Amino acid sequence: MKSFKTLITAGLTTCSVVIILPTLLVLPFHSQTDGKLTDQLQYNANQVEAASKNKNELVEISVYRTKTKKVEKLPIEEYVLGVVASEMPAIFEPEALKAQSLSARTFIVKRLEEGTELDEGGIVNDTVQFQVFQDRDDLKKKYGADYDSKIKKLEDAVKATEGQILTYDGQPITASFFSSSNGYTENSEEYWKNSLPYLKSVASPWDSVAPNYIAKKAFSVKEFESKLGISLTSKSSVGKVISRTKSNRVEQVAFGKTILTGKEIREKLELRSTDFSWERKDNQIIITTKGYGHGVGMSQYGANEMAKQGKLYDEIVKYYYKDISITSLNKKDFEELSEAAKK
């Protein structure tokens, strides 16, 4: 079967000949018209352009909106736009926004293939449980007077990568991303259970430009013990870090005979990352963190700094996701995704 790209190209060529050629034949008589010919030519050109925009309109994403408690259906590229706008600052470089578009689109395509629907309806919700999503009304409130310029920038980034996803061995990857690292990304198996060949630790030295790259958070001793479900036996110390990951994040901490992982501590204390250290001052425990997020996959601030240095979006994603390919979905892919979305 011919690729969808080939089919649409052939269709547009035929459309151009049928629609535009007859009008070109009367161009010598343009001076005898009252401007209607120019308008007709522009209309015909718009029709041709519109014909090229429908290759993935069949695929609709069902999103459960947590505020309205309703499921909304929208075209996949509109969903990607709302995710990119929610997950990455619009002031970021265009190439970073394109990289984010690829991650967002890959995530939802993989989710569609899995075919699991939420109990409340929809294939995803609009929270960090999946990907944060805001629609255009939300974004108008968010951007205010800058809405037109920012939405145009985001639309351009999404359009530039339309239909493209990240694959490994022919399959959509788990395209995880986060805000900023501690200087290195994390191996997937050191934060989650699964070891994925494309989610391996790489240096990301640019991340220190992120706001609140180093942050502090204080707890009372009582609150600290309660949240972690432990008891501190010493009045001067906290817990002993007994191992770190290859990227220097906390792997395990011993509180007497109780062992907690860095991930458990981060989640229970709502810390910015698993690269943390602490000190005890009287009745307080002060924790210092470096970076923001789980650290697995693409660093968003790292991607933006790479873009500032002239790196293109394909270079960015292939740096953070090892040995992956950028794959353009064809007609058959869209048809299969459409069927999966309807189930």
From TrEMBL:
Keyword Ribosomal protein set for record: no
Regions crossing the membrane: 7-29
Start and end residues of each Sporulation stage II protein D amidase enhancer LytB N-terminal domain: 64-168
Cellular component aspect of the GO annotation: outer membrane-bounded periplasmic space
InterPro entries in the record: Bact_Sporulation_Assoc, SpoIID/LytB, SpoIID/LytB_N, Spore_II_D_firmicutes
GO biological process, one term: sporulation resulting in formation of a cellular spore
Species per Swiss-Prot/TrEMBL record: Gottfriedia solisilvae
Lineage, highest ranks first: Bacteria, Bacillati, Bacillota, Bacilli, Bacillales
Keywords in alphabetical order: Membrane, Transmembrane, Transmembrane helix
UniProt protein name: Stage II sporulation protein D
Pfam family membership, one: SpoIID
